[in-house]
Amino acid sequence: MAEIQTLSIETQPVQRQPKDYKSDLEPIWCPGCGDYGVLNALFKAMSQLNLDPDKTVLVSGIGCSSRLPGFVVTYGFHGVHGRVLPVATGIKLARPDLTVIGVGGDGDGYSIGLGHFPHAARRNIDITYIVMNNQIYGLTKGQTSPTSSTGFQTKTTPFGNMDGSLNPLQLAIVSGATFVARGYSSMPNQLAKIIAEAIRHPGFALVDVFSPCVTFNKVQTYDYYKGKVYEIPDTHDPTDKFAALRLAEEDGVFPIGILYRVDRPTLDEQVAMVKQQAYTENPSVEQLFKKYQ
Ligand SMILES: Cc1ncc(C[n+]2csc(CCOP(=O)(O)OP(=O)(O)O)c2C)c(N)n1
Ligand code: SF4
Hints:
By secondary structure, this protein is an alpha/beta fold. The chain has a single domain, classed as 3-Layer(aba) Sandwich (Rossmann fold). The chain contains 10 helices and 8 strands. An 8-stranded mixed β-sheet has the order 2-1-3-4-6-5-8-7, sandwiched between helices. α1 (35-49) crosses α6 (188-200) and α4 (117-123) crosses α5. It is globular, with a radius of gyration of 21 Å. The structure holds thiamine diphosphate and iron/sulfur cluster.
């Protein structure tokens, strides 16, 4: 009998370009909104990593910035306000093979969603969280957010914001995040590099991005950041927690880059190990009853 020959076809990996991640939907952000820069940097980062859109999920909440998943050809989940992190955590635990990226605004992530933030960080779930921080609520037309500066006059604070402003970088570091970075939407090449590193990092990675709202924030404008943002020098040791906290504390000038990066087991790795152990031991229901009665 003739031997059956199997034909193997070698397929070359496709190198995707930034434009290949762009969906047919055109962004409807105001002209000049910082979120355009973040979207373009994300396209570049995805191309640098050659991410497969069929294996990538973008999860967002509600806000101008949370529209972002619609503009990308990956899977997307445009959820409810403030719930990026629990949804992203659930997706990553159910499908650890997927690259999961949360996106949204400072209102979404640091106000209504803040309760989820330290827990995602301390659990070290392997997701990337990009916060487009414009220090205001854009979608609802200009109210203060937790990162608004003290004294900032908005519709909700006509006599000036009386609150101190939250420092998301420090909060992430002390909560147990293993990758903490700051980007600026007007430095798209550097932002793309930071986002690519964050996605590559195994564990909870925060990328807080200054992304000016040109319509409602007339204080933290592009002019405001000119001369205040600077790249973190190579001499900074990102494994030094206290050095990272000091960088995040700087006031009046804003270091851009990776402040903190360490390795620690991720939640999804540990859950996979427990699942494996349960399959290996495979106890009967009777044995389980005996063990726990
Ligand atoms: C439960 C709930 N509360 C309030 C709102 C109203 N709301 C929609 S977006 C938003 C804040 C948006 O600010 P931010 O997350 O910073 O995003 P931006 O629009 O600035 O990108 C608020 C309060 C809502 N949609 N759902
Ligand atoms: S309102 Fe602000 S945040 Fe929203 S799209 Fe316009 S500039 Fe961007």
